[in-house]
Design goal:
Elements (H helix, E strand, L loop, with lengths): L10 E7 L2 E8 L4 E5 L7 H12 L3 E5 L11 H13 L14 H16 L4 E6 L5 H5 L5 E7 L9 H4 L6 H12 L4 E6 L7 H11 L3 E6 L28 H18 L2
Parallel strand pairs: 3-4, 3-5, 5-6, 6-7, 7-8
Antiparallel strand pairs: 1-2, 2-4
């Protein structure tokens, strides 16, 4: 079966760790960057972002975790993907102090990318349901440029969940130690995002101090850029690819962050 048009230019390969095999879409040359897609899957917008990263001089590794690669987003598609993740043993959507089991497989992929590409290390960006995964991957020394875009786990029903980092206490200590040693974290969100609340970013700043750089884009009522209160996906669905727009500024910062951390400036 041929690949969807939006996935052309990516080379699919099978990656196995602990008897679990998934398809990974690879593109580009240079230091490795693992792009973890959001709900509902590797949509055309996620593929465009991955292409943008590859074109900036990196080797992108985009693992297929759920959904259908290249399929456009619809409400029904989003809901079905969310349900599948909620009942999957690999995702713990309500856990504030525990990472999803799938992050072990993703850490192995990061080590594979570093072994293939060499260099200072690899970058990792998670979005929405996979947003906080970048913190869990940072536990592995191969990850040198972790980016959290609208990190949405755990689901924000209680205050503890709204500020939860989806990370075990022991892993948090490793993340704090690495951040203090210079492995900075970059985190992005819209201010009125109903899935990624301010408490989570306050917690990040409280735990990591100068080791985290946060970008919070105004999506409050009457904001100067006309962003809706439902704005969620900073570098994909809500991206306005126009110089000076805050989402484009955020995208440019992500690419610059990868260059700084993975190319040594």
């Amino acid at each position: 079966m041929s690949e969807p048009v939006t996935m052309r230019g990516f080379e699919p390969f099978a990656f196995t760790h602990h008897a679990k095999t998934r398809t990974v879409y690879k593109r580009g040359q240079g230091p490795g960057v693992v792009v973890m897609h959001e709900v509902p899957g590797i949509t055309p917008e996620v593929a465009r972002f991955a292409t943008r990263v590859a074109d900036a001089g990196f080797t992108v590794y985009a693992p297929h975790m759920f959904g259908t690669p290249g399929k456009p987003e619809t409400l029904g598609y989003v809901l079905s993907s969310m349900i599948r993740c909620c009942i999957s043993r690999e995702f713990k959507v309500l856990a504030a102090n525990e990472s999803s089991p799938i992050t072990d497989w993703l850490r192995a992929l990061c080590r594979h990318a570093h072994a293939e590409c060499g260099g200072l290390g690899v970058g990792a960006i998670g979005m929405c349901m996979t947003g906080n995964f970048a913190l869990a991957l940072m536990v592995d020394e191969s990850v040198m440029a972790p980016v959290l875009s609208q990190p949405s786990l755990p689901s924000p029903y209680t205050r503890a969940q709204r500020e939860g980092l989806h990370l075990s206490p022991s892993d948090l200590e490793i993340v704090k130690r690495r951040a203090a040693a210079g492995c900075t974290v970059l985190a992005l969100r819209f201010t009125a995002d109903p899935l990624c609340h301010a408490e989570r970013f306050e917690r990040l700043r409280r735990e990591l101090g100068d080791g985290v750089e946060t970008i919070e884009i105004d999506s409050s009522p009457g904001n100067p850029h006309g962003l809706p209160a439902t704005a969620h996906s900073v570098v994909t669905r809500e991206l306005v690819d126009r110089e000076g727009h805050p989402t484009r500024v955020a995208l440019d910062r992500v690419l610059a962050f990868f260059k700084e951390r993975l190319r040594g400036g």
